[in-house]
Amino acid sequence: MKPDLSQLFRKVTIVGKKVRRFFLVSLALFLVLFVSGCYHPVDEKKSKNYYYNSLKTEIRYIPLGNSFELGNTKVDGVNLETFQVIAEEYAKDKNNVYFQHEKIEGADPSSFSHVCNLAVNGFLYADKNNLYYNQVRFKSFNVKTIRFFGNESCSVYLGDDDRVYYAGVGYDLKPIQPIPKADPETFKAYALGDNSVYSDYAKDKNYVFYDGKILNGADTNTFEELSPHIYFKDSRSVYCNGKVLENVAPENFTRINNSCYATDKKRVYYYCKLIVEADPETFVAIENTGGQCYAKDKNHNFIAGSIQK
């Protein structure tokens, strides 16, 4: 029996059309997904976080352009014609200001501007009415009389004409909080360095403060910086990291050769740590190599406050 070649040809043709249709549909779907998944930076010089989709119909917030590991979020409600990047984490259009992908409620786009950076992850902005810390608005702050303590251009201690505020230090930044009982007219903060925004110690005519809180027992009239940022003292005590060094006479306390070590002639300290094994009479600070702080006395060699073995 001979095979029906015409019927076989029809079956092959039908299968071929289905395969071709499937291929074309798959290709179209791939192209749609590929095109829609391509993103272009809005303003790469200002931010690596804001992107147009390929058709420029929406804005996406993609941290560092890494959507696979860091996410890809649509910025809702954007006016595309007026959208512009302000900084790494900020953008605006004619209607709103955005922090990352969220609207900053109440922010005025026309007057919104950068004030300073309190840390890598702490940004201070202002508009004509309010102060903003990242995306948080401070309605009670008088932005027209803003000032900084410790560093005139930017500091974690800041104030207006009525109050003093504290913003925290380092990566453990907290929302800016008013400091109860602080007097803005006599307030002084001790910056960590000439250009540093960080200050932990501060004082006014009535109190001494550490990390924005009253340092109980400290005498504001005699409180002073004994060594750049490490040690402070008043007429009664020596302070390190906001705590009293026990049984230390402030009049005898000195830093050893501008090193990591200090002494009150009876004891030796490595920053805030008492070195029990050290002999104060023969103790010598040698060098500070790679932050290790070498020293020696008649009995031991020390590295970073511990006996070197």
Describe this structure in words.
This protein is mainly β. Among the domains are: 33-103, no CATH class; 108-189, no CATH class. The chain has helices at residues 5-36, 67-70, and strands at 39-41, 50-53, 59-61, 73-74, 84-87, 90-92, 97-99, 102-103, 113-119, 122-126, 131-133, 136-138, 147-149, 157-159, 164-166, 177-178, 188-191, 199-203, 208-210, 213-214, 224-225, 231-233, 238-240, 243-244, 254-255, 261-263, 268-270, 273-274, 284-287, 294-296, 301-303, 306-307. The strands form eight sheets. It has a four-stranded antiparallel beta sheet, with no helix packed on it. Strands 5-6-7-8 form a four-stranded antiparallel beta sheet, with no helix packed on it. A four-stranded antiparallel beta sheet has the order 9-10-11-12, with no helix packed on it. It is elongated and about 100 Å long. The chain starts with a helix and ends with a strand.
